[in-house]
Amino acid sequence: MSHAHMQATVGDITVSGAMARFMLAGRPGAVFLTIENKGEADRLIAASSPLTDRVELHTHLMEDGVMKMRQIEGIDVAASGTTELKSGGLHIMMFNVDPMPEKDSVVPLTLTFEKAGTLDIQAMVIDKAGMSH
Q1: Alpha-carbon distance 19 to 30, whole Å?
Q2: Is 132 within the bounds of a domain?
Q3: Residue 131 falls within a domain, yes or no?
Q4: Cα separation of 90 and 57, whole Å?
Q5: Rg (Cα) of the chain, in Å, rounded?
Q6: How many domains does the chain have?
């Protein structure tokens, strides 16, 4: 199944297009996805996976001319809006995943939203070696 067709819904929140990228063994992986909200404003406040005990919400920001990743407490999802988690922006980081998932396999994740609650999704592992997350 193509990752573009994988989607899951809880309340007014629909998550689609979840992709995971694992570049090097022993290094964190990144998850990208699209959150569509058909209701009032909400917030992604946590992510977890049975593959690891350390999953964090992250953003990129410019600091002294250098792009750096930082863990954040939550990702806002506007009322009747769409929030994209993508390379170079907001994303989910998975640490200490061993063994590293194979290309075209799926990574299970549970997303927790402040209002909508929890949502189980599967992110398709893609191969984008050479690109930064």
Answers
A1: 8
A2: no
A3: no
A4: 8
A5: 14
A6: 1
Closest among 88, 58, 87, 53 to 74, alpha carbons compared: 58
**Distance in Å from the first CA to the final CA of the chain:** 24
Which residues 6+ apart lie within 8 Å of 72 measured at CB?
A: 57, 58, 59, 90
CATH of the domain at 92: 2.60.40.1890
The answer as to whether 93 is a domain residue is yes
Show pLDDT as tens, one digit a residue, over the chain (133 residues).
Answer: 444 458 999 999 999 999 999 988 888 999 999 999 999 999 999 999 999 999 999 998 888 888 888 999 999 999 999 999 998 899 999 999 988 899 999 999 999 999 999 999 999 999 754 444 4
Query: Is the distance from CB of 35 to CB of 44 less than 8 angstroms?
Result: yes
Please tell me the distance from the alpha carbon of residue 108 to that of residue 91, in angstroms, as a whole number.
Answer: 16
Range of the domain at 69: 3-125
